[in-house]
């Protein structure tokens, strides 16, 4: 995590084709205003992969068990997002 970088959403140039993925409803609300300006979509990561977990807390600094569990959820959800995006592209072509 030493190489992790953070950036304010306001400082990123979004594109209409972007899918903005938030880990919490509060962050989704915050980036939704930005997404409306450019026409991109916003989703909650924890709603993908059959998880139905709208709030994925930041596991940084948590116990190793909590950290691993949260990252397991993130992996499951991102696999689903990537799979669905690939399938969508294949169907479009």
What portion of residues belong to β-strands?
A: 5-15%
Provide the spatial order of strands within the biggest beta sheet.
1-2
Mean pLDDT: 89
Q: What is the makeup of the main sheet? A: 2 strands, parallel
Give a count of the beta strands, DSSP E runs of length 2 or more: 2
pLDDT < 50 stretches: none
Summed up, the helix count is 2
Q: Termini distance?
A: 38 Å
Q: What is the overall silhouette?
A: globular
Number of domains: 1
Give your account of this protein's structure.
This protein has 2 helices and 2 strands. The protein has 93 residues and is mainly alpha-helical. It is globular and about 40 Å long. The longest helix has 29 residues. The protein has one domain.
What order do the helices and strands come in, and which of them pair?
Layout: E1 19-22, H1 25-38, E2 41-44, H2 64-92
Parallel strand pairs: 1-2
Spell out the key features of this protein.
two-stranded parallel sheet; 93 residues; mainly alpha; 46% helix
What does this entry show, briefly?
The chain is mainly alpha-helical. It has one domain (17-92). The chain is built from 2 helices and 2 strands, in the order E-H-E-H.
